[in-house]
């Protein structure tokens, strides 16, 4: 065992101090304004192992420990600030620091990359490495990821599981891009793929200050990565989200056209899928705010536009746009007053592509059904 090797080399000792004795020691240190730490009282007693003893590392008592950090440069710890940490508990189980050092050695780890909150662990682990005769490792302690309130990232200000982001439809490449950009930059370049990072990333260029996680920046990055997908790849990635919402997209022969029109409506796949609900299922309700602002009192607009649309010889975006323009002129209305009631009747909200394109994604029968349903809704409101 590694612990036995350290003990036999003279770099560890058994300590049988009781919890009460240690509590009293720390209390006296705090009263004297000193840093609470084990004072080494059993260090030179040559105690034998008992059922109540722990094994402690003989940390050097003077001098300093110096190591080079790839992010922070030269880091110095005074050995007098480090106490004799426990290697084995009284039940014989190893502690975190010993397990960490031995595990890294057995796995052939050469470089340790971790958060700056582990910086204070490094001198302790280096002393254990030295006691075991292990080779030195490289270290890089990255800045902590902070929320927009500049406090340590928590569930209060962001999702903290990568899987949760994937479940919302953020791409793996987007998360890699976002995480790489936390505390690191390459000029004005913002969008990176894995091959770019392999070529451009240098851990020595990572900043020391905490990196702020900005959800809106992730949305922007994911938008770019989604836009870079071929349509077939985008649709393939979207389908599981449509399925999860119970949307039968195959019922529409023009499902690809609908998806293409909506692919940039939201910055993640779940949001796009949710926006597709009114295109692949019956409309069950209207957004209250939108209805109160634009739909209430729009009976004349709905009926006038409906007549115009039913008079079209061809059903396509261009002919629909022409009919809408004629309707706007005939009713002498500003664009929102004409378009939004129709948009709400078709999708339940004011959010959709251009109105001509939106209407063209439905057939005329569906358009009539939804305008009639909106008129019935308005009739029931009066």
TrEMBL record:
GO process annotations (BP): glutamyl-tRNA aminoacylation
Keyword Nucleotide-binding found: yes
Any one annotated GO CC term: cytosol
Gene3D superfamilies: 1.10.10.350, HUPs
Record-annotated Aminoacyl-tRNA synthetase class I anticodon-binding domain positions: 235-375
Enzyme class: ligase
InterPro entries in the cross-refs: aa-tRNA-synth_I_cd-bd, aa-tRNA-synth_I_codon-bd_sub2, aa_tRNA-synth_I_cd-bd_sf, Glu-tRNA-ligase_bac/mito, Glu/Gln-tRNA-synth_Ib_cat-dom, GluQ/Sye, Rossmann-like_a/b/a_fold
EC number: 6.1.1.17
Chain ranges passing through the membrane: none
GO molecular function annotations of the record: ATP binding; glutamate-tRNA ligase activity; tRNA binding
Entries under PANTHER family matching the protein: GLUTAMATE--TRNA LIGASE (PTHR43311), GLUTAMATE--TRNA LIGASE, MITOCHONDRIAL-RELATED (PTHR43311:SF2)
Protein family membership: Belongs to the class-I aminoacyl-tRNA synthetase family. Glutamate--tRNA ligase type 1 subfamily.
Protein name listed in UniProt: Glutamate--tRNA ligase
Taxonomic classification: Bacteria, Pseudomonadati, Pseudomonadota, Gammaproteobacteria, SAR86 cluster
